[in-house]
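Technical note accompanying the year-one report. For the benefit of new consortium partners, we illustrate the data format agreed upon in the data management plan: each record pairs a sequence with a structure-token string. No post-processing was applied to the example shown here.
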Amino acid sequence: MKKRFVYGLSGVLLLGFLLTGVSGCASGPTQKAREYFENLYKRIGYKQEGNYRVIDIFYATSREVTENKDSTLKFHPRMGKGVTGGKVDVKVNPRIKIGKMLPQRFKRKREIGIQDVQKLSNADLLKQLTDAVANSPHKSLLVLVFGFKDDFEAVAIEAAYFAYMLDVNTPILLFDWPGDQPVSIAGYHKAQKNAKASGPHLGELLTSVIREVKPEKIWIQASSLGCQVVCDAFEHMHKYDDLRDAETEIHHVFLAAPDVGQDDFDDHFKEQIAALTQGLTTYVASNDEALLISGLLNEDKRLGRLKKPGKAMDQSEETRDLLYLKSLAPDKISLIDVTLINKASYGHGYYLEDPEYFDDVYFRIFGNPPHSNRRLYLIKYKGDTDYWVLK
């Protein structure tokens, strides 16, 4: 696995440690590097089990779930009649490093894997969510929604990995949907259909969380085709008078590599995001090959992909097309170009594979202004429009 520092701050601290050792300063840290890295990521809540940390995650899924003869649960790649919820325990090796997120490989190498899955009634799920939120330091909830191709086990591993790398002490709610369709044109369109059908289920779940669990902060992180699920969820929630009033219910929404039609986003989501959230950050890239293929299949522009620049720091007319978001709610909406840091598979999975992405999300979760992240650079256009580039 390719090794990288996960946080810029961690790199600075380690560099300071090495320089101090070279200079012979007796007051420098004496911790070994191995111990140092094992002591990282302590903000997130976990239980210790041998050499592993066990992270508890809540889940809700729109896929069909049945019970096997041995009482274990089977998660099918098709839509269910409603939402099934519960808890899943995921074991994480504390020495895990950021890199290519391949759930099966992580499982084989015993770096991360599901330990236990249990089913809860809707009432019990909301009750346990309420208790977890009340006992969390930020009275918060982080909702994660992933995209096309992976089954329930894979997205549960990805959710635990994301939570571990982000390292914010907050309850996690994974919203799973049947995106595990064949990697083919027909399979992709089937997943797209399931994503749109799952949106109202997520919307109703979030409505229940807002009304009954009442977190002080709700953060939603969606990626790829999971962003379509979130778009349709917000369209569903917007129909409720108590949610579309002047008071915003969602603290921040993060859309990474959104596999959503730009026109569809304009028609079905931009008004809802302004009404229901305090902030939206959309991450886009010109080297996202997966969204290039999606655009060809859908015969339209995808929100998360830019045309390749003609020259450095020039992201063409298509970037300026996206800047209509700023005119809608300039104090709420940010557009981040991640092309320069995007080293992910097919230029698409940077939301799990690039440490700079985790850095930026961490800053924004706690309401830090963009200029406080030294990796961000502000680009100006005519008419005083702007967007941010992550380096």
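Partners are asked to follow this layout when depositing records. DSSP finds 14 helices and twelve strands in the chain.
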